[in-house]
Write a structure and sequence with these properties.
This protein has 346 residues and is of the alpha/beta class. It contains 11 helices and 13 strands.
Length: 346
Amino acid sequence: MFRFEHPEFLYALVVLPLILVLYFYRQNWRKKARKRFGEINLVDKLIPNISKTKPVSKLILSLTGLFFIIIACANPQIGTRLEEVKREGVDIIIALDVSNSMKAQDIRPSRLERSKQAISRLIDQLQNDRIGMIVFAGQAYVQLPITSDYAAAKLFLGSIDTDIIPTQGTCIGCAIDLAVESYVGNDNKHKALIIITDGENHEEDAVESAKKAHAEGVIIHTIGMGSPEGAPIPVIRNGQSDFLKDNEGNTVITKLETLTLERIAAEGKGQFIQASNGDDGLSSVLASINKMQKKSFGTKQFTDYEDRFQYFLAAGLLLLLIEFTITNKRSKIIQNMDLFHEKRVK
């Protein structure tokens, strides 16, 4: 297991391209200054001892040395001992609607992107809970099985888009049924399901599925992502932005449908929250989940880590030392190797 103890130091890496830009800016300024002084070829003959390649070598050594030192400051570590750690928490599954209507932009930047941002913030607030993700449209699929690996959850979250499921629609019931099958353990508590959708359910079994899920101990919360006024659905046609139209050429307006989501939350003994541009609702849902009874479970994780910063620090300092000892003057050996000088015949 590899990790950085202080990953915030990695932000300093942005300095390296800035140094590179400043270097080329300075070289360009010097070149223009030499042109103003005189013909470049003549100016070069006036300073024959100055090397053209050594400054580039010194730059490469400096940047590489700084790179290794920044990595050393972040302190890379390698896990050496894997142990089972006992935790107490709730199993949370997030079912995210990825139908095309989630592209609508009545919630900025879009319903789907705002949902992903909210889920990412929720993951940051989790401590001992386990999380899983389901995506659904016309069908439902497990995007991430229940896990305590929050980094993996964010990784899988980033890959979610509307084209991840080929079948369009909004089968909320399918997502609920799949979530019930995805929970770990047979106990009838410690389970929470968060459904994030615009509510345009195209199936009739969602409320019934919610009733069965609650009988299995699942508390269901629903978050309506959208507005009652609705918004058009952006599409790309022939490389140009447009809006989805029906068979008669009218622009399709997708509206938030709250009735089904309210009924699902009521059957699941959870909350229904209508998201807005100011509040996505997940903070309120998480507060309710934190009040639930916790269950104890064991997870495998690395408990001992060994520092590896010293190798990067040594390499960085060595490269900077080499850079310091190199001058901009040409080597005397190269100066004496005048291979293209024609000897005069007496």
